[in-house]
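Figure 6 in text form: structure in, sequence out.
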Protein backbone atom coordinates (compact mmCIF):
# COMPACT_ATOMS: atom_id res chain seq x y z
CA UNK A 1 0.00 0.00 0.00
CA UNK A 2 2.81 2.32 0.95
CA UNK A 3 4.63 1.51 -2.31
CA UNK A 4 1.49 2.34 -4.31
CA UNK A 5 1.19 5.70 -2.55
CA UNK A 6 4.83 6.44 -3.28
CA UNK A 7 4.33 5.40 -6.91
CA UNK A 8 1.26 7.62 -7.22
CA UNK A 9 3.16 10.47 -5.63
CA UNK A 10 6.02 10.04 -8.10
CA UNK A 11 3.57 9.92 -11.02
CA UNK A 12 1.93 13.14 -9.90
CA UNK A 13 5.32 14.73 -9.42
CA UNK A 14 6.38 13.66 -12.90
CA UNK A 15 3.17 15.00 -14.39
CA UNK A 16 3.78 18.29 -12.64
CA UNK A 17 7.23 18.42 -14.12
CA UNK A 18 5.81 17.69 -17.58
CA UNK A 19 3.30 20.50 -17.35
CA UNK A 20 5.89 23.19 -16.78
CA UNK A 21 9.00 23.21 -18.92
CA UNK A 22 11.24 26.25 -18.76
CA UNK A 23 12.84 27.45 -21.99
CA UNK A 24 15.67 29.32 -20.30
CA UNK A 25 17.77 31.92 -22.08
CA UNK A 26 20.84 29.67 -21.81
CA UNK A 27 18.98 26.72 -23.36
CA UNK A 28 17.75 28.82 -26.28
CA UNK A 29 21.09 30.54 -26.88
CA UNK A 30 23.02 27.25 -26.66
CA UNK A 31 20.75 25.53 -29.18
CA UNK A 32 20.67 28.47 -31.62
CA UNK A 33 24.41 29.23 -31.37
CA UNK A 34 25.34 25.56 -31.59
CA UNK A 35 23.17 25.04 -34.68
CA UNK A 36 24.21 28.30 -36.39
CA UNK A 37 27.88 27.34 -36.37
CA UNK A 38 27.20 23.67 -37.18
CA UNK A 39 24.13 22.38 -39.03
CA UNK A 40 23.60 25.79 -40.68
CA UNK A 41 27.03 25.47 -42.32
CA UNK A 42 26.19 21.95 -43.51
CA UNK A 43 23.04 23.19 -45.25
CA UNK A 44 24.82 26.26 -46.61
CA UNK A 45 27.58 24.16 -48.15
CA UNK A 46 25.03 21.90 -49.83
CA UNK A 47 23.57 24.78 -51.84
CA UNK A 48 26.41 27.31 -52.08
CA UNK A 49 28.09 25.64 -55.08
CA UNK A 50 24.97 25.70 -57.28
CA UNK A 51 24.77 29.42 -58.18
CA UNK A 52 28.46 29.96 -59.10
CA UNK A 53 28.87 26.58 -60.85
CA UNK A 54 29.39 28.17 -64.30
CA UNK A 55 31.90 30.70 -62.99
CA UNK A 56 33.85 28.06 -61.06
CA UNK A 57 34.06 25.82 -64.14
CA UNK A 58 35.34 28.81 -66.12
CA UNK A 59 37.96 29.39 -63.40
CA UNK A 60 39.02 25.73 -63.67
CA UNK A 61 39.35 26.04 -67.45
CA UNK A 62 41.34 29.29 -67.31
CA UNK A 63 43.67 27.89 -64.64
CA UNK A 64 44.25 24.74 -66.69
CA UNK A 65 44.94 26.76 -69.86
CA UNK A 66 47.38 29.05 -68.02
CA UNK A 67 49.31 26.07 -66.67
CA UNK A 68 49.35 23.75 -69.66
CA UNK A 69 48.74 26.06 -72.63
CA UNK A 70 45.49 24.44 -73.79
CA UNK A 71 41.88 24.28 -72.62
CA UNK A 72 40.69 21.41 -70.48
CA UNK A 73 38.50 18.90 -72.33
CA UNK A 74 34.84 18.60 -71.37
CA UNK A 75 35.23 15.19 -69.74
CA UNK A 76 38.05 16.32 -67.45
CA UNK A 77 36.16 19.50 -66.54
CA UNK A 78 33.08 17.49 -65.63
CA UNK A 79 35.22 15.15 -63.55
CA UNK A 80 36.86 18.06 -61.68
CA UNK A 81 33.46 19.60 -60.96
CA UNK A 82 31.99 16.28 -59.80
CA UNK A 83 34.94 15.82 -57.44
CA UNK A 84 34.46 19.37 -56.10
CA UNK A 85 30.82 18.69 -55.27
CA UNK A 86 30.99 15.09 -54.04
CA UNK A 87 34.26 15.25 -52.09
CA UNK A 88 32.36 17.18 -49.42
CA UNK A 89 30.77 13.81 -48.48
CA UNK A 90 34.20 12.14 -48.19
CA UNK A 91 35.26 14.81 -45.70
CA UNK A 92 31.97 14.28 -43.86
CA UNK A 93 32.68 10.56 -43.56
CA UNK A 94 36.11 11.30 -42.07
CA UNK A 95 34.50 13.70 -39.57
CA UNK A 96 31.89 11.13 -38.57
CA UNK A 97 34.60 8.51 -37.97
CA UNK A 98 36.81 10.70 -35.76
CA UNK A 99 34.01 12.32 -33.74
CA UNK A 100 33.78 9.62 -31.03
CA UNK A 101 37.22 10.09 -29.41
CA UNK A 102 36.89 13.88 -29.77
CA UNK A 103 33.57 14.17 -27.90
CA UNK A 104 34.85 11.73 -25.28
CA UNK A 105 37.99 13.76 -24.56
CA UNK A 106 36.80 17.35 -25.06
CA UNK A 107 33.08 17.05 -24.36
CA UNK A 108 30.13 18.01 -26.57
CA UNK A 109 30.32 21.80 -26.32
CA UNK A 110 34.10 22.04 -26.63
CA UNK A 111 34.01 19.77 -29.68
CA UNK A 112 31.62 22.19 -31.39
CA UNK A 113 33.88 25.13 -30.53
CA UNK A 114 37.14 23.43 -31.62
CA UNK A 115 35.49 22.18 -34.80
CA UNK A 116 35.58 25.76 -36.08
CA UNK A 117 39.31 25.32 -36.71
CA UNK A 118 38.32 23.16 -39.70
CA UNK A 119 35.75 25.74 -40.83
CA UNK A 120 38.22 28.64 -40.72
CA UNK A 121 40.89 26.63 -42.56
CA UNK A 122 38.33 25.70 -45.23
CA UNK A 123 37.20 29.33 -45.59
CA UNK A 124 40.76 30.54 -46.19
CA UNK A 125 41.44 27.88 -48.81
CA UNK A 126 38.17 28.26 -50.73
CA UNK A 127 37.85 32.05 -50.65
CA UNK A 128 41.47 32.63 -51.68
CA UNK A 129 41.56 29.97 -54.43
CA UNK A 130 40.67 32.44 -57.22
CA UNK A 131 43.27 34.94 -56.04
CA UNK A 132 45.92 32.20 -55.84
CA UNK A 133 44.88 30.70 -59.18
CA UNK A 134 44.60 27.23 -57.65
CA UNK A 135 41.47 25.09 -58.04
CA UNK A 136 43.15 22.49 -55.82
CA UNK A 137 42.68 24.91 -52.90
CA UNK A 138 38.93 24.97 -53.53
CA UNK A 139 38.73 21.17 -53.66
CA UNK A 140 40.85 20.78 -50.50
CA UNK A 141 38.69 23.38 -48.77
CA UNK A 142 35.58 21.37 -49.63
CA UNK A 143 37.16 18.27 -48.06
CA UNK A 144 38.01 20.13 -44.85
CA UNK A 145 34.55 21.71 -44.75
CA UNK A 146 33.14 18.19 -45.04
CA UNK A 147 35.16 17.12 -41.98
CA UNK A 148 33.65 20.05 -40.09
CA UNK A 149 30.15 18.97 -41.15
CA UNK A 150 30.77 15.32 -40.26
CA UNK A 151 31.83 16.24 -36.73
CA UNK A 152 29.09 18.82 -36.16
CA UNK A 153 26.21 16.62 -37.40
CA UNK A 154 27.12 14.12 -34.68
CA UNK A 155 28.24 16.44 -31.86
CA UNK A 156 25.35 18.91 -32.19
CA UNK A 157 22.42 16.43 -31.89
CA UNK A 158 24.32 14.76 -29.04
CA UNK A 159 24.68 18.10 -27.23
CA UNK A 160 21.06 19.14 -27.81
CA UNK A 161 19.65 15.79 -26.66
CA UNK A 162 21.68 15.97 -23.43
CA UNK A 163 20.89 19.57 -22.44
CA UNK A 164 17.13 19.44 -23.11
CA UNK A 165 14.38 18.18 -20.78
CA UNK A 166 12.70 15.09 -22.21
CA UNK A 167 9.41 17.01 -22.58
CA UNK A 168 10.93 19.25 -25.30
CA UNK A 169 13.75 16.98 -26.47
CA UNK A 170 12.13 16.48 -29.88
CA UNK A 171 11.46 20.17 -30.48
CA UNK A 172 14.98 21.13 -29.48
CA UNK A 173 16.39 18.29 -31.55
CA UNK A 174 14.60 19.64 -34.62
CA UNK A 175 16.77 22.77 -34.37
CA UNK A 176 19.41 20.74 -36.25
CA UNK A 177 17.08 20.21 -39.22
CA UNK A 178 15.69 23.76 -39.11
CA UNK A 179 19.15 25.29 -39.38
CA UNK A 180 20.14 22.90 -42.19
CA UNK A 181 17.14 24.28 -44.13
CA UNK A 182 17.98 27.89 -43.21
CA UNK A 183 21.54 27.23 -44.39
CA UNK A 184 20.31 25.91 -47.76
CA UNK A 185 18.02 28.94 -48.14
CA UNK A 186 20.80 31.37 -47.21
CA UNK A 187 23.09 29.81 -49.82
CA UNK A 188 20.38 30.35 -52.43
CA UNK A 189 19.84 33.99 -51.40
CA UNK A 190 23.54 34.92 -51.31
CA UNK A 191 23.98 33.23 -54.70
CA UNK A 192 21.61 35.71 -56.40
CA UNK A 193 23.25 37.90 -59.08
CA UNK A 194 22.59 41.04 -57.01
CA UNK A 195 24.66 39.69 -54.11
CA UNK A 196 27.53 37.23 -54.69
CA UNK A 197 26.28 35.36 -57.77
CA UNK A 198 28.69 37.15 -60.10
CA UNK A 199 31.96 36.08 -61.67
CA UNK A 200 34.07 38.48 -59.61
CA UNK A 201 32.24 37.84 -56.33
CA UNK A 202 31.80 34.06 -56.05
CA UNK A 203 34.75 33.65 -53.61
CA UNK A 204 32.74 35.77 -51.12
CA UNK A 205 30.14 32.98 -51.06
CA UNK A 206 32.75 30.77 -49.39
CA UNK A 207 34.21 33.58 -47.30
CA UNK A 208 30.78 34.16 -45.71
CA UNK A 209 31.17 30.81 -43.91
CA UNK A 210 33.45 32.50 -41.37
CA UNK A 211 30.58 34.58 -39.90
CA UNK A 212 28.64 31.71 -38.23
CA UNK A 213 31.92 30.17 -37.08
CA UNK A 214 33.09 33.35 -35.36
CA UNK A 215 29.69 33.87 -33.71
CA UNK A 216 29.81 30.34 -32.31
CA UNK A 217 33.42 30.75 -31.10
CA UNK A 218 32.53 34.02 -29.32
CA UNK A 219 29.29 32.89 -27.61
CA UNK A 220 29.36 29.12 -27.03
CA UNK A 221 32.37 29.02 -24.62
CA UNK A 222 30.34 31.07 -22.10
CA UNK A 223 27.55 28.47 -22.01
CA UNK A 224 27.66 25.25 -19.96
CA UNK A 225 28.85 21.85 -21.12
CA UNK A 226 26.32 19.02 -21.31
CA UNK A 227 25.30 18.29 -17.68
CA UNK A 228 24.94 14.59 -18.45
CA UNK A 229 28.49 14.50 -19.78
CA UNK A 230 29.75 16.32 -16.68
CA UNK A 231 27.90 14.00 -14.31
CA UNK A 232 28.22 10.60 -15.95
CA UNK A 233 31.58 10.86 -17.71
CA UNK A 234 33.46 13.49 -15.71
CA UNK A 235 31.76 12.65 -12.38
CA UNK A 236 31.59 16.33 -11.47
CA UNK A 237 28.29 16.83 -9.66
CA UNK A 238 28.77 20.50 -8.77
CA UNK A 239 29.38 21.54 -12.40
CA UNK A 240 26.52 19.34 -13.58
CA UNK A 241 24.15 21.00 -11.10
CA UNK A 242 25.22 24.47 -12.26
CA UNK A 243 24.73 23.43 -15.90
CA UNK A 244 21.24 22.07 -15.17
CA UNK A 245 20.37 25.25 -13.26
CA UNK A 246 21.35 27.48 -16.18
CA UNK A 247 19.71 25.34 -18.85
CA UNK A 248 16.48 24.79 -16.91
CA UNK A 249 16.30 28.28 -15.39
CA UNK A 250 15.69 27.10 -11.82
CA UNK A 251 17.65 26.53 -8.63
CA UNK A 252 16.25 23.16 -7.58
CA UNK A 253 17.54 20.57 -10.06
CA UNK A 254 17.56 17.62 -7.65
CA UNK A 255 14.90 15.83 -9.71
CA UNK A 256 17.02 16.06 -12.88
CA UNK A 257 20.21 15.01 -11.09
CA UNK A 258 18.44 12.00 -9.58
CA UNK A 259 16.98 11.05 -12.97
CA UNK A 260 20.46 10.97 -14.52
CA UNK A 261 21.90 9.10 -11.54
CA UNK A 262 19.09 6.56 -11.83
CA UNK A 263 20.18 5.88 -15.39
CA UNK A 264 23.76 5.47 -14.21
CA UNK A 265 22.66 2.89 -11.65
CA UNK A 266 20.95 0.90 -14.40
CA UNK A 267 24.09 1.18 -16.51
CA UNK A 268 26.30 0.39 -13.52
CA UNK A 269 29.17 2.13 -15.26
CA UNK A 270 29.90 4.98 -17.61
CA UNK A 271 32.78 3.56 -19.62
CA UNK A 272 32.27 4.46 -23.26
CA UNK A 273 31.33 1.59 -25.55
CA UNK A 274 33.23 1.05 -28.80
CA UNK A 275 31.45 0.51 -32.11
CA UNK A 276 32.30 -3.21 -32.07
CA UNK A 277 30.94 -3.57 -28.52
CA UNK A 278 27.79 -1.70 -29.48
CA UNK A 279 27.21 -3.86 -32.54
CA UNK A 280 27.62 -6.99 -30.40
CA UNK A 281 25.19 -5.79 -27.74
CA UNK A 282 21.96 -7.71 -28.18
CA UNK A 283 19.90 -5.26 -26.13
CA UNK A 284 20.31 -2.48 -28.71
CA UNK A 285 20.30 -4.56 -31.88
CA UNK A 286 17.02 -3.23 -33.27
CA UNK A 287 17.85 0.31 -32.20
CA UNK A 288 20.99 0.14 -34.37
CA UNK A 289 19.07 -1.33 -37.32
CA UNK A 290 16.46 1.44 -36.98
CA UNK A 291 19.13 4.15 -36.95
CA UNK A 292 20.77 2.64 -40.06
CA UNK A 293 17.39 2.47 -41.85
CA UNK A 294 16.34 6.04 -40.96
CA UNK A 295 19.74 7.54 -41.81
CA UNK A 296 19.96 5.56 -45.04
CA UNK A 297 16.48 6.66 -46.12
CA UNK A 298 17.32 10.23 -45.09
CA UNK A 299 19.87 10.38 -47.91
CA UNK A 300 18.45 7.83 -50.38
CA UNK A 301 14.82 9.05 -50.44
CA UNK A 302 15.41 11.22 -53.51
CA UNK A 303 15.60 14.79 -52.32
CA UNK A 304 18.92 15.26 -54.13
CA UNK A 305 17.18 14.15 -57.33
CA UNK A 306 14.56 16.83 -56.77
CA UNK A 307 17.24 19.53 -56.68
CA UNK A 308 18.65 18.13 -59.91
CA UNK A 309 15.32 18.45 -61.74
CA UNK A 310 14.15 21.78 -60.28
CA UNK A 311 15.68 24.17 -62.84
CA UNK A 312 14.58 21.99 -65.75
CA UNK A 313 10.99 21.81 -64.52
CA UNK A 314 10.84 25.55 -63.88
CA UNK A 315 12.16 26.14 -67.39
CA UNK A 316 9.54 23.80 -68.90
CA UNK A 317 6.86 25.77 -67.06
CA UNK A 318 7.73 28.84 -69.10
CA UNK A 319 9.79 30.61 -66.43
CA UNK A 320 12.64 32.59 -67.98
CA UNK A 321 16.23 31.55 -67.30
CA UNK A 322 16.99 34.83 -65.51
CA UNK A 323 13.98 34.42 -63.22
CA UNK A 324 14.65 30.81 -62.18
CA UNK A 325 17.14 31.67 -59.36
CA UNK A 326 14.45 33.79 -57.69
CA UNK A 327 11.74 31.15 -58.13
CA UNK A 328 14.14 28.55 -56.70
CA UNK A 329 14.06 30.51 -53.45
CA UNK A 330 10.55 29.13 -52.98
CA UNK A 331 12.01 25.65 -52.49
CA UNK A 332 14.32 26.87 -49.72
CA UNK A 333 11.48 28.82 -48.09
CA UNK A 334 9.13 25.82 -48.15
CA UNK A 335 11.90 23.63 -46.72
CA UNK A 336 12.49 26.04 -43.83
CA UNK A 337 8.78 26.55 -43.03
CA UNK A 338 8.15 22.78 -43.03
CA UNK A 339 11.08 22.17 -40.67
CA UNK A 340 9.84 24.89 -38.29
CA UNK A 341 6.33 23.37 -38.41
CA UNK A 342 7.79 19.98 -37.51
CA UNK A 343 9.64 21.48 -34.55
CA UNK A 344 6.42 23.05 -33.27
CA UNK A 345 4.27 19.90 -33.46
CA UNK A 346 6.73 17.08 -32.79
CA UNK A 347 6.00 16.98 -29.04
CA UNK A 348 2.26 16.85 -29.71
CA UNK A 349 2.10 14.42 -32.61
CA UNK A 350 5.20 12.37 -31.76
CA UNK A 351 8.08 11.02 -33.85
CA UNK A 352 6.26 8.07 -35.48
CA UNK A 353 3.44 9.97 -37.25
CA UNK A 354 5.76 12.66 -38.61
CA UNK A 355 8.42 10.22 -39.81
CA UNK A 356 6.12 7.59 -41.32
CA UNK A 357 3.67 10.22 -42.59
CA UNK A 358 6.50 12.18 -44.23
CA UNK A 359 7.70 9.13 -46.14
CA UNK A 360 4.08 8.26 -47.05
CA UNK A 361 3.44 11.69 -48.54
CA UNK A 362 6.70 11.53 -50.48
CA UNK A 363 5.57 8.24 -52.06
CA UNK A 364 2.32 9.84 -53.24
CA UNK A 365 3.96 12.96 -54.68
CA UNK A 366 6.80 10.99 -56.31
CA UNK A 367 4.17 8.93 -58.14
CA UNK A 368 2.27 12.03 -59.28
CA UNK A 369 5.54 13.74 -60.29
CA UNK A 370 6.52 10.74 -62.43
CA UNK A 371 3.20 10.92 -64.30
CA UNK A 372 3.33 14.69 -64.75
CA UNK A 373 6.95 14.67 -66.01
CA UNK A 374 6.22 11.85 -68.43
CA UNK A 375 3.17 13.57 -69.92
CA UNK A 376 4.12 17.24 -69.49
CA UNK A 377 4.67 17.78 -73.23
CA UNK A 378 1.11 16.68 -74.00
CA UNK A 379 -0.83 18.80 -71.48
CA UNK A 380 0.09 22.48 -71.07
CA UNK A 381 -0.70 22.75 -67.34
CA UNK A 382 1.18 19.65 -66.19
CA UNK A 383 4.50 21.51 -65.61
CA UNK A 384 2.72 23.54 -62.93
CA UNK A 385 1.60 20.29 -61.30
CA UNK A 386 5.26 19.20 -61.38
CA UNK A 387 6.26 22.40 -59.56
CA UNK A 388 3.61 21.72 -56.92
CA UNK A 389 4.87 18.13 -56.50
CA UNK A 390 8.45 19.34 -56.04
CA UNK A 391 7.42 21.75 -53.29
CA UNK A 392 5.20 19.07 -51.70
CA UNK A 393 8.02 16.49 -51.69
CA UNK A 394 10.39 18.99 -50.07
CA UNK A 395 7.78 19.87 -47.41
CA UNK A 396 6.99 16.18 -46.77
CA UNK A 397 10.68 15.43 -46.29
CA UNK A 398 11.22 18.30 -43.87
CA UNK A 399 8.26 17.61 -41.59
CA UNK A 400 9.73 14.25 -40.58
CA UNK A 401 12.52 12.42 -42.45
CA UNK A 402 14.62 15.59 -42.65
CA UNK A 403 15.32 15.94 -38.93
CA UNK A 404 13.86 13.16 -36.81
CA UNK A 405 16.63 10.60 -37.60
CA UNK A 406 19.07 12.83 -35.66
CA UNK A 407 16.61 13.06 -32.75
CA UNK A 408 16.09 9.29 -32.60
CA UNK A 409 19.82 8.55 -32.55
CA UNK A 410 20.13 10.69 -29.42
CA UNK A 411 17.11 9.06 -27.79
CA UNK A 412 17.77 5.37 -28.46
CA UNK A 413 21.07 5.01 -26.64
CA UNK A 414 22.34 5.58 -23.13
CA UNK A 415 25.23 7.88 -22.28
CA UNK A 416 28.03 5.36 -22.73
CA UNK A 417 26.70 4.18 -26.10
CA UNK A 418 25.75 7.53 -27.64
CA UNK A 419 29.12 8.52 -29.24
CA UNK A 420 29.49 5.13 -30.95
CA UNK A 421 25.86 5.26 -32.09
CA UNK A 422 26.34 8.69 -33.64
CA UNK A 423 29.50 7.42 -35.33
CA UNK A 424 27.50 4.60 -36.96
CA UNK A 425 24.69 6.99 -37.91
CA UNK A 426 27.14 9.50 -39.36
CA UNK A 427 28.97 6.85 -41.36
CA UNK A 428 25.71 5.59 -42.90
CA UNK A 429 24.61 9.17 -43.57
CA UNK A 430 27.78 10.20 -45.43
CA UNK A 431 28.24 6.92 -47.32
CA UNK A 432 24.63 7.18 -48.53
CA UNK A 433 25.22 10.81 -49.47
CA UNK A 434 28.26 9.85 -51.53
CA UNK A 435 26.40 6.92 -53.13
CA UNK A 436 23.57 9.20 -54.28
CA UNK A 437 26.01 11.67 -55.81
CA UNK A 438 27.87 8.86 -57.56
CA UNK A 439 24.96 6.71 -58.78
CA UNK A 440 22.14 9.17 -59.44
CA UNK A 441 23.46 10.40 -62.84
CA UNK A 442 23.47 6.77 -64.06
CA UNK A 443 20.00 6.08 -62.63
CA UNK A 444 18.66 9.25 -64.24
CA UNK A 445 20.30 8.46 -67.60
CA UNK A 446 18.85 4.94 -67.61
CA UNK A 447 15.34 5.57 -66.27
CA UNK A 448 14.79 9.25 -67.14
CA UNK A 449 11.67 10.53 -65.33
CA UNK A 450 10.90 7.03 -64.01
CA UNK A 451 13.91 7.33 -61.67
CA UNK A 452 11.53 8.83 -59.09
CA UNK A 453 9.80 5.44 -58.77
CA UNK A 454 13.09 4.07 -57.36
CA UNK A 455 12.99 6.73 -54.63
CA UNK A 456 9.29 6.04 -54.02
CA UNK A 457 10.22 2.39 -53.45
CA UNK A 458 12.93 3.39 -50.93
CA UNK A 459 10.43 5.60 -49.09
CA UNK A 460 7.91 2.75 -49.05
CA UNK A 461 10.47 0.31 -47.65
CA UNK A 462 11.49 2.80 -44.95
CA UNK A 463 7.91 3.66 -43.97
CA UNK A 464 6.94 -0.03 -43.79
CA UNK A 465 9.90 -0.90 -41.57
CA UNK A 466 9.26 2.05 -39.23
CA UNK A 467 5.53 1.25 -39.01
CA UNK A 468 6.25 -2.22 -37.64
CA UNK A 469 9.40 -1.55 -35.61
CA UNK A 470 9.62 2.04 -34.36
CA UNK A 471 8.06 2.72 -30.91
CA UNK A 472 6.99 6.24 -29.96
CA UNK A 473 9.73 7.98 -27.96
CA UNK A 474 8.28 11.37 -27.04
CA UNK A 475 8.45 12.27 -23.33
CA UNK A 476 10.18 8.95 -22.55
CA UNK A 477 13.43 8.26 -20.72
CA UNK A 478 16.11 5.97 -22.12
CA UNK A 479 14.88 3.21 -19.80
CA UNK A 480 11.31 3.50 -21.12
CA UNK A 481 12.49 3.54 -24.74
CA UNK A 482 14.58 0.43 -24.06
CA UNK A 483 11.44 -1.29 -22.79
CA UNK A 484 9.79 -0.56 -26.14
CA UNK A 485 12.56 -2.50 -27.90
CA UNK A 486 13.10 -5.21 -25.25
CA UNK A 487 10.58 -7.68 -26.66
CA UNK A 488 11.87 -7.32 -30.21
CA UNK A 489 15.46 -7.68 -29.00
CA UNK A 490 14.29 -10.80 -27.10
CA UNK A 491 15.76 -9.66 -23.81
CA UNK A 492 14.24 -8.91 -20.42
CA UNK A 493 15.21 -5.70 -18.66
CA UNK A 494 17.47 -7.70 -16.34
CA UNK A 495 19.11 -9.37 -19.33
CA UNK A 496 19.49 -5.93 -20.91
CA UNK A 497 21.64 -4.77 -18.03
CA UNK A 498 23.71 -7.96 -18.19
CA UNK A 499 23.97 -7.61 -21.96
CA UNK A 500 25.26 -4.07 -21.73
CA UNK A 501 28.01 -5.02 -19.31
CA UNK A 502 28.76 -8.75 -19.36
CA UNK A 503 31.75 -8.39 -17.05
CA UNK A 504 32.26 -9.44 -13.51
CA UNK A 505 30.77 -6.78 -11.25
CA UNK A 506 30.62 -5.81 -7.63
CA UNK A 507 27.39 -5.93 -5.69
CA UNK A 508 24.83 -3.31 -6.68
CA UNK A 509 25.00 -1.58 -3.31
CA UNK A 510 28.78 -1.28 -3.40
CA UNK A 511 28.75 0.05 -6.98
CA UNK A 512 26.12 2.67 -6.22
CA UNK A 513 28.01 3.72 -3.11
CA UNK A 514 31.27 4.03 -5.05
CA UNK A 515 29.61 5.90 -7.92
CA UNK A 516 27.82 8.35 -5.63
CA UNK A 517 31.05 8.93 -3.72
CA UNK A 518 32.98 9.59 -6.91
CA UNK A 519 30.32 12.00 -8.15
CA UNK A 520 30.19 13.91 -4.89
CA UNK A 521 33.96 14.24 -4.82
CA UNK A 522 34.15 15.21 -8.49
CA UNK A 523 36.62 12.39 -9.12
CA UNK A 524 36.68 9.38 -11.37
CA UNK A 525 37.04 6.05 -9.57
CA UNK A 526 38.85 3.46 -11.60
CA UNK A 527 37.27 0.73 -9.55
CA UNK A 528 33.85 1.29 -11.07
CA UNK A 529 33.37 -1.22 -13.87
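Output sequence:
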Amino acid sequence: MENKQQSNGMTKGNNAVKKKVNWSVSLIVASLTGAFGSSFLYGYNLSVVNAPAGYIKKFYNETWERRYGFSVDEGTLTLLWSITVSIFAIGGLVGAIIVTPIVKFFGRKCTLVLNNVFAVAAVLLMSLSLLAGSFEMLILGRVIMGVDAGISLSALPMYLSEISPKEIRGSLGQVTAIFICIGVFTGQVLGLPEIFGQESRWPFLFGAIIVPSLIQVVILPFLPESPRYLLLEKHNRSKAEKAFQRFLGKDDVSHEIEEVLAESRVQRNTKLVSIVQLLRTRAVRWQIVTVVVTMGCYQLCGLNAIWYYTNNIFSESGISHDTIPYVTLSTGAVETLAAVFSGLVIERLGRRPLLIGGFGLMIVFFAVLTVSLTLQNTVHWLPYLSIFCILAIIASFCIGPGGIPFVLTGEFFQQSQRPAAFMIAGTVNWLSNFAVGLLFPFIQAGLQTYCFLVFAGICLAGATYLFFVLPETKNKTFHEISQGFAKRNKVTLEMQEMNHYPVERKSSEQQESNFTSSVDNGETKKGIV
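Caption detail: DSSP finds 28 helices and no strands in the chain.
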